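For concreteness, we quote verbatim a single protein encoded this way:
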Amino acid sequence: MDTKFIVESDIVIRAVDKPFHQRQTLGVFLTADAAYQYIEKYLADTKELHTYFSRHFLCAKEDFEEFIKHERIVAINIVLGQFEDMIYVRQV
């Protein structure tokens, strides 16, 4: 069985009273590098859509697999006043 990297979002939407009760899958990738590139594009697309109202953090590429191994948040994507999006990657 091939290893897969599942990018997931644990999101808090400010306008919704009832949050999601589980992480939402954003994508499934065959390599950690492809997952990292996807997250970079996801963050860039959010910034492009929301211009100066967005903030984000993405762990350093050399730390990425260590963050995955220890189930740490690899990225945080925030659009001020709208949502906070914590990004995780699971390796299966």
